[in-house]
Amino acid sequence: AFERITMLCKYTLRVLRPFVPCFMTRAASSTKLTSDSLTVVDNRDGKSYEIPIVQNTIHARQLSQIQGLRSYDPGYMNTASATSAITNTDGEKGLLTYRGYPIKELAEKSNFLEVSYLLLYGELPDETQLEYFTERIRKHTGVHEDITKLIDCFRHDAHPMGMLVSALGAMSNLYPEANPSLVGQDVYADKQVRNQQIHRLIGTLPALSAQISRRRQGRPYVGPSHQKLSYAENFLYMLDRNSNPDYRPHPVLARALDISFILHADHEMNCSTSAMRHLASSGVDVYSATSASTAALYGPRHGGANEAVIHMLEEIGSIENIPSFMERVKRKEVRLMGFGHRVYRHYDPRAKIIHDCAKEVFDVVGKEPLVELAVALEKHALSDPYFVERKLYPNVDFYSGLMYRAMGFPMSFYPVLFVIPRVVGWLSHWNEYLDDPENNIVRPRQRYVGSPPRPFVSMDQRKTSSSAEIRSVESSESKRRYVAPVPP
């Protein structure tokens, strides 16, 4: 009788739950509820569970007590994978801060290496700290001869990102004393060893990128300047110097690039940053992890957004074609590149800054022909209720591609200009991850939907399956070769 009454009560609670959720939540709990908690009722057995809420998150492991329950979140759309104090984005307010400092203030009042120090070590440096940090970066502004030989092995028209991914991966073999697989997993416990790799990567990357650019142009490589140039100035020097050893880039262009580097230095748990943390969790060396992150950024859905903007503007062609193009966007026939953001629900805080930088660049090198088209497109989008209601505002990629194009960078090089500053963000997260007591190896779960256990079927009893597509592309050259008669 007691069991029947219990079952009746559970059934009654299930029926009433949609109508009186508060009553259901409290009636099902036998303990006193706290304000910072979530009460979950499992309708399969009527049991309730109180889960603590910490900084508006619940720990996924708490769900496992509910009959082994797991959350399913493809693309991590609503999953916090780490605790971090580096970068914060507030999509609703359109805010971006590095260690609490608004990105606008940093772009206006700071420089890239000062911001790099902030991201890596948590506070803005004093004069002595910045001088030491800058000097360590400068001393590592060079490329190992073996890496230079590797770059020479690539075709002159190889994609810059493919070359960069390979070169960074190869660097893991040059410093065995800093490789956990060779000298032990605790090698990075030594902060000085860790800092050496940080300084080396930040210092080497502009020189490595400049070599890749000049390799594609068939020009001899140029080492760092003997002058005390800024980080961006030295990069432009290694890109552009020909016969004049005292060559110095235009200050407006160098400052615009420096600001662009600040804006792109970090952006929370994006795809490539998550890759950095994922690789770090395996204990692999930092160069292999950086190479993997670069490969993630190589993907057009991540690092190719500003290039896609240029392609879109070229497709539109003229201001007169904007209305018809926007109608195609509304019909979902084409995508409006450079507008909207997965994080920001209002104007990307970086967009206005890069817009102003682009204008200054145009004043020096001349206006990029696509600028007027871009301005007209932005004006059209911001006055159209369809785009305003969906909060599709320009993001940082909309004008950065135009600025890079005006500065003479080929579109294939745009992702490299993304990697150079973003390596600072990756290294900041790598640094933070190594000190995190919860830095377990990343091992997501899956929701298995495949076949249940089944016996092996011998070849003569298997039925032909037509569901698998196994054919691959054959070139005309291969077809010519394969039709040759086979000798007896």
UniProtKB/TrEMBL annotation:
SUPFAM superfamilies: Citrate synthase (SSF48256). Pathway: Carbohydrate metabolism. The active site is at residues 341, 397. GO terms for biological process: monocarboxylic acid metabolic process; tricarboxylic acid cycle. Keywords: Transferase, Tricarboxylic acid cycle. Residues 471-480 have a biased composition (Basic and acidic residues). It holds the Pfam family Citrate_synt. The keyword Ligase does not apply. It comes from the Eukaryota. Residues 444-488 are annotated as: Disordered. Its main location: mitochondrion. GO terms for cellular component: mitochondrial matrix. The keyword Transferase applies. It is found in: Mitochondrion matrix. GO terms for molecular function: acyltransferase activity, acyl groups converted into alkyl on transfer. Gene3D superfamilies: Citrate Synthase, domain 1, Cytochrome P450-Terp, domain 2. InterPro entries: Citrate_synth-like_lrg_a-sub (IPR016142), Citrate_synth-like_sm_a-sub (IPR016143), Citrate_synthase (IPR002020), Citrate_synthase_AS (IPR019810), Citrate_synthase_bac-typ (IPR024176), Citrate_synthase_sf (IPR036969). Homodimer. Belongs to the citrate synthase family. PANTHER family: CITRATE SYNTHASE (PTHR42871:SF1). This is Citrate synthase. It comes from Hirondellea gigas.
